[in-house]
User: Fold Response regulator transcription factor from Erysipelothrix inopinata.
Amino acid sequence: MYKILIVDDNVKFAEFLQMALTNETMEADIVFEPVSALQAIANNNYDLMISDLHLPDINGVQLAKSIRTMKPKIKVIILTGQPTENSELESIYYNVDHYIEKSKSINIIYNYVENLLQRDISNEEQSTLYSKSENILINLTEHSVMKDNEEYDLTPSEFKLLTLFLKNKSITLSRETISQELFGYFDPKSRSIDVHLKNLRSKMSITSISTIHGIGFKWNEE
Assistant:
């Protein structure tokens, strides 16, 4: 469920937008002034803030700047009934995700919101790898590995090796391919790969890696 914060001192418009954005995948809260927005952001994990440009005390872009210091990953959409080149340039400068005129239909605004949130999901999917057969989750951004909800401390080579297998599940990888990925070169006489594999299997109790004699290794995924 996505959480959205709507910041607008126009009560009727805010409530209309809240109703349009509330469904089985999204829920929206409303605040009417910047101070309340800062408090709400501090106390909740919102995925997106939709703010009117013209607010009491500070404008929506300045609010976005302040909020990004608290929650750097939050998405921001600025809505305005009085668009100007200067305010649009300001929104670009402060990395606002979308600057949208309020005259746009609610359907257009909804699609901007949906696409922005879906884009975030795609990025998250690219930053994680998962094996169902071993219940292993790799977070590539945080450089962390979990198995059965337990975190494992892997060496850099072990992490690279596990990542390589989960990116190529059910595919036979040659010794040369693995060696180039781990070390940047291939020495057919070296047994370094075998040592790292043995350590990885032992450390995480992995049974899904099979040896393909004369070729290399394969991750067997259910």
In short: The radius of gyration is 24 Å. Residues 8 and 32 are 5 Å apart (CA to CA).
